[in-house]
Amino acid sequence: MEGIMEFQGMVEEIRANLSGIGHKIAVMSGKGGVGKTTVAVNLAVSLAKKCKVSLLDADIDCPNVNKFLGIKERLTARGGKMVPVNKYGMSVVSFASLQESEDQPVIWRGPMLSKAIMELLGNVEWGKQDYLIVDLPPGTSDAPLTIMQILKPDGVVIVTTPQEVAVVDARKSARMAMKMEIPVIGIIENMTGDIFGTGGGEKAAGDLGVEFLGRVRLDKRISGSADKGKPFVLEESPVSGGFGDIVKKVKQYTDKK
Ligand SMILES: Nc1ncnc2c1ncn2[C@@H]1O[C@H](COP(=O)(O)OP(=O)(O)OP(=O)(O)O)[C@@H](O)[C@H]1O
Ligand SMILES: [Mg+2]
Question: For residue 230, what are the contacts with CB-CB under 8 A and spacing of at least 6?
């Protein structure tokens, strides 16, 4: 808990503000560009078919969630709190909804990024939700640390691509979560196929003794959906079917808690 003691009063307020949320799940990876936002967005939309779901984009300097969901709206205010944007049946909060334009760079040092995440956690009208899914930026520093210390997710889902370079970083993320006493729900291998290979995610899960949640193959329909602002699970295709098993495993994990 060191480093957040100075914010103790604020932390209590933030936790009170989040008290209507049932399960909190963060999606993380050590390496960038492996598919965290893809997983977070599609997991949230899948869960939102039957549950009340909020999705928080905790990537402050390069927020991508709005782009993946085709959101152009800004956050509005009500009673001194920010109101999430409603899209595909869920509540979405991204720092991008506070920016003038999507090309505007956020050039901040770590403590300011953490402060911005705390502002979103504490000053959004989250309401009653079954799930809060958090899309993290890559790495094991500011944003993941703030989310783990303050939000205290029920668990993290780790995304990796099959290659060794990504798997090494995925193991680092898993060990960070374990050190912070946040359970690892499991590992997803993304972009499986001829180009990056297959098996690295499953091996990492085995090495770490955590569940292997499944693989998502490298498929241009997935990047195409993201570019269109429509999650791939909402389109009828073989890639969307496979993701259902991953969602089921995550749901089974939270249902047990
Ligand atoms: N299985 C897949 N097949 C094809 N394209 C994919 C797949 N998964 C992700 N992509 C594409 O790869 C790019 C990176 O994915 P994404 O933005 O989800 O990664 P990320 O881990 O969130 O990246 P960052 O570290 O920058 O936050 C995006 O253009 C996305 O549409
Ligand atoms: Mg991302």
Answer: 69, 70
Q: What does the domain layout of the chain look like in residue ranges? A: 5-256
- Ligand 1 close to Cβ of residue 53 (< 6 A): no
Q: Are 157 and 213 in contact (CB under 8 A)?
A: yes
Cβ of 64 less than 6 Å from ligand 1: yes
Helix (H, G, I), strand (E, B) or coil at 142: helix
Distance 29 CA to ligand 2 centre (A): 9
Query: Could you tell me if the CB of 191 is within 6 A of ligand 1?
Result: yes
Q: Report, in angstroms and rounded to the nearest whole number, the Rg of the chain calculated over CA atoms.
A: 17
DSSP state of 161: -
| CATH 3.30.40.230, applies to 5-256 | no
Question: pTM surpassing 0.85?
Answer: yes
Distance 33 CA to ligand 1 centre (A): 5
User: Any idea which residue has 């932390």 for tokens?
Assistant: 11
Burial class (CB in 10 A: 0-12, 13-18, 19+), 149: middle
Gap from CA of 76 to ligand 2 centroid (Å): 24
Ramachandran sector of residue 164 (left: φ over 0; alpha: ψ -120 to 50; beta: rest): alpha
Tell me the mean pLDDT per 10 residues along the chain, length 257.
67 96 97 97 98 97 96 93 97 93 82 92 97 96 94 97 94 96 98 96 95 97 97 89 94 93
Residue 193 CA to ligand 2 centre (angstroms):
21
SS3 category, 121: helix
Q: Which ligand is nearest to the CA of 31?
A: 1
